[in-house]
Amino acid sequence: MNPETPQERIETTESIKRGIYILPNLVTTASMFAGFYSLVSTLNGDYYMAAILIFISAVCDGLDGKVARLTGTTSKFGVEYDSLADVVAFGVTPALMVYSWALRPYGRLGWLAAFLFVACGALRLARFNVQVNTVESKRFVGLPIPAAACMVAATVLLFHHLNRFPQELIQNPSMFKRVGLITLIYLLAFLMVSNIRYYSFKDPALIRRQPFGFLMLAVVLLIIVVAEPVVMTFAIMLCYTLSGPIGFLLGWPRRRRLEKAMRKGHESLRQ
């Protein structure tokens, strides 16, 4: 945590004394409430509802910042409160859900994987708060914690959707599927604290005029999502999760060329 200067501490204290903005913080509270209710559903064994509530929490989390910006009610208090709510809704909640649902038989390895997910999510949020003014807004550094939580929730929903199989297979995933899940948790934890960049969907160009073909593509995609919402939600989350590593690998040759060019430039300057 960056130490605040005395002046910044005084300004923060005075700002809180004057009051806080209700509307955006109320939306943040709704996100945290959905995350907490997801915890309750997990404890009650209702993993389907727990996964749905994580997505509801993610929607609220996406709205609070937009509400604050549209109403001109952004504040440092709101930023910190949002991060604390995210630790609950997208860190503790999905970790407990996937541990209770599939990782419990692994014993220590299972709960350590769940804890690693929570710890990496908290570290990801702390790094985001520190770098928020120094990193371009079009890209996230590391997988955002709401996306990681939604990936876990989408996996649970996909298993629940496959109720064509015996119910025992849904409630008690096979050993092969458990291995896949614990691997997924470790992978998501690594991606959250990595330096791999992800698209943030905050590009203003997205709301500008686009070719007619983009509208047709969006309509077709909407029809496919409505036809198979669970499968498509899982596919979309998986594509977004993999987009970072794929983009990193595709951009590796270009980065190597830039590094070599910079190295040559430094050597020529020394000579």
Task: Explain this structure.
- The protein is an all-alpha fold and 271 residues long.
- It has one domain: Up-down Bundle (Four Helix Bundle (Hemerythrin (Met), subunit A)).
- It has helices at 6-18, 22-43, 47-71, 76-103, 108-131, 145-161, 167-171, 175-193, 212-227, 229-250, 252-270, and strands at residues 139-141, 197-199.
- Helix 2 (22-43) packs parallel to helix 4 (76-103), helix 4 packs antiparallel against helix 5 (108-131) and helix 4 packs parallel to helix 6 (145-161).
- The two termini are 42 Å apart.
- It is a multi-pass membrane protein.
- Its EC number is 2.7.8.8.
Topology:
Layout: H1 6-18, H2 22-43, H3 47-71, H4 76-103, H5 108-131, E1 139-141, H6 145-161, H7 167-171, H8 175-193, E2 197-199, H9 212-227, H10 229-250, H11 252-270
Helix pairs in contact: 2-3, 2-4, 3-4, 3-6, 4-5, 4-6, 4-8, 5-8, 6-8, 6-10, 9-10
